[in-house]
Amino acid sequence: MISRRKPGHPGVFRFIGEPFRMPFLQDLPHDIKSRRKRRGPRMNCRVPVTIEWNVQSGPLHFEKGFTRVVNNYGCLLVSPRELDLRQRVRVTNLTTRRAMEAVVVWKGMQRSDGWDLGVELTTGDPDFWGVEL
Prior knowledge:
By secondary structure, this protein is mainly beta. The chain has one helix at residues 30-33; strands at 3-5, 12-15, 18-21, 43-44, 48-54, 60-71, 74-79, 88-93, 98-111, 114-121.
């Protein structure tokens, strides 16, 4: 398929004789343009953690894991066990010995080192990870 830019009209292309306009940032609604993508800065950082959770009034489970990315509101962590979305967990930073309640908000794929899980801390804490963000 051959496409050419229509002279004098930025962002307008011709595909098989039909005009097609590419959306540019200025063409998006104001609420989308002004929406922030993240609540704060993120940092690639491997922090050793323990993860604790209950399974429907069952025994308390403990696993060791680590983070890939951290921010003031949560982390991307690697768990040897698959957890459900919206699972409430307690994350303990083994470096600072601090613990916080959190919720699994995203579940990625299983890799050779464990499951990628997006975890949101129930209360944001800029000092929880022991790194300056």
